[in-house]
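Exam revision sheet. Question 4 asks you to relate a sequence to its structure. Input first:
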Amino acid sequence: MQIKKDTKPLDMKIDARSALPVYEQVKQGIKLLIASGYLGEGDRLVPIRELASQLRINPNTIVKVYYQLDVEGYIYSQPGSGYFVKGGAAQKQEERDELFASITEDYVSKASNLGFSLEDMISQLEKKITPTKREFQGESL
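Answer key, structure tokens:
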């Protein structure tokens, strides 16, 4: 396994109003970056203090997230060097399915709490998916 010393920026946002605890939002965000292939085998994660500062949360929260991701087999720690993505993490289809189900559940819950119907949710998704498909096909919007 090749270890990469550079870190990729983690584009995550924390929703303080979410029913999902902050550490779960961060953990889910990192899992998503791994499952999508943005973070690959051997990629170095952002250092604990740096990520905590970037997200404006307590460093102990990041410690908890990294520990849980290590236990779950997504990352590993190399003392003195940091945390790195484990090989094969992106290929766990079952994990990707669970993550997708969790994201979907969060979306549906928030939309329902705002009073939107299933038809409203589908309509909004279709509006968001159409531009995304064009971007992937190389068309400009």
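Marking note for examiners. The first helix runs from residue 22 to 35.
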